[in-house]
Amino acid sequence: MHSKHAPTDIDALRHDALQHLELGAVTTDYSADRKAVIERLNQALATELVCVLRYRRHHFMARGIHARGVAAEFLVHSNEEQGHADLLAARIVQLGGEPDFDPDTLTRRSHAQYIAGSSLRDMIREDLVAERVAIHSYRELVRYLGTDDPTTSDLIKTILAVEEQHANELADYLEDFPHSA
């Protein structure tokens, strides 16, 4: 049985691998627009960092009879968002870019807003809104990447699955939470 593709020319692969060694994992067959991917990943990084800060604030500011469990969940989400930020920053570096941690432009680059929320219900609501924005942004990024950058696409899909889990958890809290709290 014959393959649709010609066998790999090992000598040609080695030659290509020797070209531009400074690019590390980015090889000649990388077909995405690296600059655009890095820019989008930096937007995702900013989004994750804003979410880390908002969740962290909510963890410390949660008050009321229902606060203990919700505050603990805010801390878990904050830590998971920090993990996402770290993964995104590492991927930006792998692609030859620089992760942008500049606090002066963080909220402008973020897709999610930093809204403090005045009550526990407001905090849950704002976190759910941010998760839904992140979900939409990540789905859009996966579509943009298509098959041009499978590694970044797989990373984003992994993060997306956690964001969807966060949104479901927050929606459950919001549904069960009294409007007056």
Automatic annotation (TrEMBL):
InterPro entries xref list: Dps-like, Ferritin-like, Ferritin-like_diiron, Ferritin-like_SF, Ferritin_DPS_dom
Entry annotated with the keyword Metal-binding: no
Source superkingdom: Bacteria
Keyword Nucleotide-binding: no
One Pfam family it belongs to: Ferritin
Entry keyword set: Iron, Iron storage
All residue ranges annotated as the Ferritin-like diiron domain in the record: 31-181
Name this protein carries in UniProt: Ferritin-like domain-containing protein
SUPFAM superfamilies reported for this sequence: Ferritin-like
